[in-house]
C-alpha cells in the first residue's frame, strides 16, 4: 500500500521495523519515531491554509474525522492532477510536452503500486507515445499493473511480445466464431431474417470487432499480427468466418479513418468497393468495373496480394453477394437470348467466385496465382441452369392458358446427368447450383425444388450439408410450410435428403431438428412420429442435439390432442308401433 514512499524520503513501516529491531527500549523508540514523524507530516505535508486553522476544529465539533477531510482533499487534488496531465499532453510543442511527461513519470513511477497514486502514473504513461522500455518491462512483469494500465500502454508492450498479444486476442477470436455459429443454429427460423440480413456496418459494431479495433489503434505492427493470426487459423480450421473478420476489421478501421493502416493495406480499396456491393447484395456494372480494375492492377512481383484478396472474397457475405448476382445475371440473359460466355459482367463474377473459393489452397500452397476457370463451367453448366429457368417459365405460362388451349406439358421430373456431375466435381458450379436451389425455394417453386433435390445428396465437399446452406434452406422452406402436410414432399425432403446425412453429420441433425421445431404442426402425425424415431439421439450425439430433441419432444407432447371422453351415444332406433 505504501510502496515507493521510502524512495521519496518518507518514513514507512520498514523504518519502524528497523528501529524496533535495533533498540533496547521499544516503547521509547516508538514514541521517538511517532512524534517527529507526526510533526513532519503535519507541517510539511498538511494543507497549509491559514483559514483551516479555525475550520478544522469546527469539523471536529461535527464529528468529522481528519482522515475523511484529508482523503476528500486528496481525491480532489488527484482529479485536478489527472486533468493537468491530460492538458500537458496536448499543449505546447511536441518535444516540450513529452519531456514534461517523462520527467513526471520518472518522479512518480516509484509510487505506481500505491492504489491512490496509481491512476496518475497510469495517466502519464497513457499519454506518452514511447514509454521507457525498462518501465514497460516492470509493468509487464506485474499482473496487477499490466491489468491496470491503459490500452495505449499495452500496445507498446504487445508490439514486441507477439505471444502475449496472441493470448489477449485468442479469446476474442473464439468468441467471434461462437457468435457466428449461434446465429446459424438459432431456433428462430425465417426467410426474412437470416445469417446475411445484418448490414456490413451493423456487423462491424459487434463487440469483438470493436475490441480488436481498439486494441490495434493506429499500430500497423499489431494489425499485421492479427492478420497473421487469422491466416493461420483459417489454414488450420478452414473456417470461413475468419475471412469475414479479416474484412470487417479492415472496414472498421476505415470507418474510424485510421489512414496509418488503411493506406498500407493493399486490399483496402478493393474491400471498400466490395463492402458497398455486400450492402446492396448485388454487384452492379459500375462496381464490377472497379473490382475488375483492382484485380487486373496486381503487378508482377506483387502477386502475394492475391492471397489477401482471395481471403476477402472467401468471406461468406462476399460469396453470397457474388452468387446472388450470378443467378440474377443468368435470369437476365434468358430474357435477352444471350449466352453466358457473351456477358463480361458474369465472367467477372465467376472470376471472383473462383478466387474466393480457392483462397485456402492459395494460402496453403503459397502459389499466388488466379485459379484457372474450366471452360465447361461457362459453356455447359450455366446454359444448363438457364434451361431450368426456361422450363419454369414454359410451365408457368402453360398453366395460365385457358383450359382448351393448354398443352399436355407435365413439369420435367428428371435431372440431367451433367447437372449432378457438375455439382459433385466442380466447386464453383456446386456453389451456383446451391444458390439456384435456394432461389427457386424462395420463389415457392415446389416442382423445381423436388426435381433438383436428389442432386444435393452428393455434392462437392458436401457443400449441400454445410451450415450456411442448411441455415438458408431451412429459412426458405418456411415459405413452403403447407407442403409439409403432403407425404410425397416430406419423404423427398427428409428421407431423400436430410436423413441420408444425419447419422454421419451432427450439424445436419441439428438443422433438421430446428426445422421440425418450427414446422412440426404442419407435418402429418404419422410422418412426424416416424421422423421423431429416426432423429432420436444416440449415445455419441452432442449436447446440442439432445437439447433440441428434448425441446421437440416436449412440443409434440403438448401438441397431442387430449383423448376425448367416451360417452354413451343415445339410441337412434324408434320403438315399433304396437
TrEMBL record:
Signal sequence segment: none
Residue span of region Disordered: 559-578
GO CC term, one of those recorded: NELF complex
GO biological-process terms attached to the record: negative regulation of transcription elongation by RNA polymerase II
Lineage: superkingdom: Eukaryota
Keyword Protein biosynthesis among UniProt keywords: yes
Pfam families, A to Z: COBRA1
GO molecular function term, any single one: translation elongation factor activity
Record's keyword terms, sorted: Elongation factor, Protein biosynthesis
Name of the protein in its database record: Negative elongation factor B
Species lineage: Eukaryota, Metazoa, Chordata, Craniata, Vertebrata
Amino acid at each position: 500500500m505504501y510502496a515507493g514512499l521510502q524512495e521519496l524520503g518518507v518514513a514507512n513501516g520498514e523504518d519502524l521495523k528497523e528501529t524496533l529491531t535495533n533498540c533496547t527500549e521499544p516503547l521509547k523508540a516508538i514514541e521517538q519515531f511517532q512524534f517527529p514523524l507526526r510533526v513532519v507530516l503535519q507541517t510539511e505535508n498538511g494543507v497549509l491554509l491559514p483559514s483551516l486553522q479555525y475550520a478544522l476544529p469546527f469539523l471536529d465539533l461535527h464529528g468529522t474525522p481528519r482522515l475523511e477531510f484529508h482523503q476528500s482533499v486528496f481525491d480532489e487534488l488527484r482529479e485536478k492532477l489527472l486533468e493537468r496531465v491530460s492538458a500537458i499532453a496536448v499543449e505546447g510543442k511536441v518535444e516540450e510536452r513529452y519531456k514534461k511527461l517523462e520527467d513526471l513519470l520518472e518522479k512518480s513511477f516509484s509510487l505506481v503500486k500505491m492504489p491512490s497514486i496509481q491512476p496518475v502514473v497510469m495517466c502519464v504513461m497513457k499519454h506518452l507515445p514511447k514509454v521507457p522500455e525498462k518501465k514497460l518491462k516492470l509493468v509487464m512483469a506485474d499482473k496487477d499493473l499490466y491489468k491496470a494500465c491503459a490500452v495505449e500502454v499495452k500496445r507498446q508492450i504487445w508490439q514486441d511480445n507477439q505471444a502475449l498479444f496472441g493470448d489477449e486476442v485468442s479469446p476474442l477470436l473464439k468468441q467471434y466464431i461462437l457468435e457466428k455459429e449461434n446465429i446459424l443454429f438459432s431456433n428462430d427460423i425465417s426467410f426474412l431474417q437470416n445469417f446475411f440480413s445484418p448490414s456490413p456496418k451493423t456487423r462491424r459494431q459487434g463487440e469483438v470487432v470493436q475490441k480488436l479495433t481498439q486494441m490495434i489503434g493506429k499500430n500497423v505492427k499489431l494489425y499485421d499480427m492479427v492478420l497473421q493470426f487469422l491466416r493461420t487459423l483459417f489454414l488450420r480450421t478452414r473456417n470461413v468466418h475468419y475471412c469475414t473478420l479479416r474484412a470487417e476489421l479492415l472496414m472498421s478501421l476505415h470507418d474510424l479513418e485510421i489512414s496509418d493502416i488503411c493506406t498500407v493495406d493493399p486490399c483496402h480499396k478493393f474491400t471498400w468497393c466490395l463492402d458497398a456491393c455486400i450492402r446492396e447484395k448485388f454487384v452492379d456494372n459500375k462496381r464490377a468495373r472497379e473490382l475488375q480494375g483492382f484485380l487486373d492492377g496486381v503487378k508482377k512481383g506483387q502477386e502475394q496480394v492475391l492471397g489477401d484478396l482471395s481471403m476477402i472474397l472467401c468471406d461468406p457475405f462476399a460469396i453470397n453477394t457474388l452468387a446472388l448476382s450470378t443467378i440474377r445475371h443468368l435470369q437476365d440473359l434468358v430474357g435477352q437470348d444471350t449466352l453466358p460466355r457473351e456477358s463480361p459482367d458474369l465472367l467477372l463474377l465467376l472470376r471472383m467466385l473462383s478466387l474466393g473459393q480457392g483462397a485456402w489452397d492459395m494460402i496453403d500452397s503459397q502459389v499466388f496465382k488466379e485459379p484457372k476457370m474450366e471452360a465447361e463451367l461457362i459453356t455447359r453448366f450455366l446454359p444448363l441452369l438457364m434451361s431450368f429457368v426456361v422450363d419454369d417459365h414454359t410451365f408457368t405460362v402453360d398453366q395460365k392458358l385457358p383450359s382448351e388451349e393448354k398443352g399436355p406439358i407435365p413439369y420435367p421430373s428428371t435431372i440431367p446427368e451433367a447437372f449432378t456431375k457438375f455439382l459433385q466435381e466442380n466447386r464453383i458450379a456446386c456453389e451456383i447450383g446451391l444458390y439456384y436451389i435456394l432461389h427457386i425455394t424462395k420463389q415457392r417453386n415446389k416442382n423445381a425444388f423436388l426435381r433438383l433435390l436428389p442432386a444435393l445428396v452428393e455434392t462437392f465437399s458436401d457443400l449441400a450439408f454445410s451450415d450456411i446452406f442448411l441455415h438458408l434452406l431451412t429459412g426458405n422452406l418456411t415459405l413452403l410450410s403447407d407442403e409439409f402436410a403432403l407425404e410425397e414432399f416430406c419423404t423427398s425432403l427428409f428421407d431423400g435428403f436430410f436423413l441420408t446425412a444425419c447419422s454421419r453429420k451432427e450439424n445436419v441433425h441439428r438443422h433438421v431438428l430446428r426445422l421440425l421445431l418450427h414446422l412440426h404442426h404442419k407435418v402429418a402425425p404419422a410422418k412426424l412420429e416416424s421422423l421423431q424415431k429416426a432423429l432420436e439421439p444416440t449415445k455419441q450425439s452432442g449436447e446440442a442435439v439432445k437439447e433440441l430433441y428434448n425441446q421437440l419432444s416436449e412440443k409434440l407432447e403438448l401438441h397431442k390432442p387430449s383423448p376425448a371422453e367416451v360417452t354413451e351415444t343415445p339410441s337412434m332406433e324408434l320403438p315399433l308401433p304396437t
